[in-house]
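Marked as duplicate of an earlier ticket. Keeping the data here for the record.
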Amino acid sequence: MKTSSIVDKLLKNMGNMHELGRQRAFELGNPFYAQFAEDQGYWRKELPTGEKYLVALEVITDENDMPIEVRDTIIKRLD
């Protein structure tokens, strides 16, 4: 009998991965960013309060190419 690991279970339902990231970002008090094809290269920013924005995103990295800051410029508020 084969037992499946937690990784195997998660990989079977990849559709929930963005929701897990969203939940964790909100738990930490951070905004959640996601990119969708219909947004023409911009990113969606969702705050823990539920407000949503379309933003241009810039990730600042250190000398080791590790992200250290996220800068966003609001393009418009989404309803």
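See parent ticket for discussion. DSSP finds two helices and four strands in the chain.
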